[in-house]
């Protein structure tokens, strides 16, 4: 339940997007998850009553995975000495994610 509370605010951000071809397989899996799991459908509707629930979930899952990766690597100091800041990388990753969902 905690994960749903954390991820819920991401859902309306992506609900109005349109998955690009590279993200369509994930969108299809998210569509099945919504259709097969009433609790998931209810959760998505609570945060994003408008828009496509499968796209909202696909974008949310991708955003969470990307954020986890960038933040974890930054916290561990893995970017030290690489010539960029974690903030710059995070901005680039989020821009790429927005493009992949058509935002």
Task: Give the tags.
103 residues, mainly alpha, 6 helices, elongated
Task: Describe the 3D structure.
- The structure is a single chain.
- This protein has 103 residues and is mainly alpha-helical.
- 70% of the residues lie in helices and 0% in strands.
- The protein is built from 6 helices and no strands.
- The longest helix is centred in the middle third of the chain and has 23 residues, at 53-75.
- The radius of gyration is 15 Å and the shape is elongated.
- The two termini are 28 Å apart.
- 24% of the residues are buried.
Given the structure, what is the number of helices? 6
Say how many strands there are.
0
**β-sheet strand percentage:** under 5%
- Terminal-residue CA separation: 28 Å
Order of helices and strands: HHHHHH
List the uncertain runs.
none
Shape: elongated
Furnish the topology, listing elements before pairings.
Blueprint: H1 2-7, H2 11-15, H3 24-36, H4 38-47, H5 53-75, H6 86-100
Helix pairs in contact: 3-4, 3-5, 5-6
Summarize the structure.
The protein contains six helices and no strands. It has helices at 2-7, 11-15, 24-36, 38-47, 53-75, 86-100. It starts with a helix and ends with a helix.
